[in-house]
Every structure is written in structure tokens, then in C-alpha cells.
Amino acid sequence: MDAAPGTSSGTQKEGRKSRKAEDIAMIHDLKICICNIPKKELSLDEGTMAWLRGRLSFKVYNPNKPDKYGVKFYMLADGTSGYIYKFDVYCGIGKTTVETVMGLMAPLVNKGYHLYMDNYYNSVSLTEQLREVGVYTCGTLRLQRGAPKDLQQVVKGKMATDTTLYMHKDNTFVIVWKDKRPVSVITNIHKADTTQAQRRKRVRNVTGELE
């Protein structure tokens, strides 16, 4: 079959891969999303399904996994039950991280959901975009993804252990806490209040097990 004018055959093949993956996700949505209303807290993360044999152009390789080849999924899950509400298949083309997150959250906007993500997804820009459609977020943050420059400069210097720094715009807080190394968080669910926690020292019993 000839390629359409102005379109390479490679581009057509990539488009077909994407459509096949979208068809799989659509079947899941028809069976799960329509029948299931998730609780207020949601979690977004990626996972891999092992692919042991056969050709698949969008399989991914991770040498640190027991099954080194697999299909990568972005999964939106109910934080209470753990059930996957909606997912997207990584096809190696097309969508940005922001587009992926916004697409997964599309059926749940303007309903006050709380979305928890790690620093693979989070950015100041994404937090603001989600807030505009009534979704509140919390999770770890890579400071170079929109955190105030002043805060970035302070963190690059010497922070004393157990120090907490934060800056905010309206109700969006970027918080940095120093333990062995700085840990940064972005949230518009919580404030910058801190609570002193008691660390319990673990000891071994007579059998050598940690208590």
C-alpha cells in the first residue's frame, strides 16, 4: 500500500501502533471507568508487563528488572482500593508527560480529586494546569522543573540536617527538607507545617531478627 502524500510509511506504522494501544486502553475504560467511581485520593505511577517472546516494536528494556523486556504502562489507581482506574500504554512516540497525565485525569476533572505522583511527572507547570481543572496534587519534585530560583540556589549550598525550607505562590507550596540529602516536594493539598517524629531504633532479638 502506498503512503499518503506528504506522509512517510514509517510515520504511518507508528500511528498504527499508537491506535492499537489506544484500543486496548479503550476496552479497559468501557469495562472499568464507567462502572467504578474512585475515592478522593488517586495515585499515578508507571509499571511494566513482561514481554517474553515475539516481536513488539514498542517494548522497553530495563536491565534492572527481573524481566528485562516488557510493555510500559502509565497507571492511574484508586489510592484506597489499589484498583487501576485508567491506564495509557507507552508506545515510544507522541505524548509528553503533561499530555499523558492530563489525558488520564480527563474524566475526573472539576471534582476535587487529590492526585499523588513522584518526580517523574511533577512540575510546577503541571500542578498549575491541574489546579485550573479542579485537581489537587502532591509529590516529590525535581527543583529544576519550575521551583523558584532562589530556593534552588539555597539547596545547592549547604543546608543543615533536619532543616525545612519552603516557598509558595497562592496555595502551591514547594518544600525542601534535608535529611542525609535534600528531599523536595510540591503540594497544593497541604501547608508547610511540620511535625516532630520520634525515630525508633531497631534492635535484633535473640534469633537475630530485627524488631
Major sheet: size, sense and barrel closure? 9 strands, mixed
Low-pLDDT runs: 1-11
Number of strands: 9
* Shape verdict: globular
Structural class: alpha+beta
Radius of gyration: 21 Å
Give the number of helices. Answer: 4
Strand-and-helix sequence, N→C?
HEEEEHEHEHEEE
Overall average pLDDT: 81
Terminal residue distance: 67 Å
* Helix fraction bin: 10-25%
Into which percentage range does the β-strand content fall?
25-35%
Characterise the protein shown here.
There is one protein chain. The chain is an alpha+beta fold and 211 residues long. The chain contains 4 helices and 9 strands. It has helices at residues 9-32, 97-105, 124-132, 149-156, and strands at 41-50, 60-61, 69-78, 84-89, 114-116, 136-140, 164-169, 172-178, 182-187. Strands 1, 2, 3, 4, 5, 6, 7, 8 and 9 form a 9-stranded mixed sheet that branches. 16% of the residues are buried.
Short description:
With about 210 residues, the chain is an alpha+beta fold. The protein has four helices and nine strands, in the order H-E-E-E-E-H-E-H-E-H-E-E-E.
Break the fold down into its secondary structure elements and pairings:
Blueprint: H1 9-32, E1 41-50, E2 60-61, E3 69-78, E4 84-89, H2 97-105, E5 114-116, H3 124-132, E6 136-140, H4 149-156, E7 164-169, E8 172-178, E9 182-187
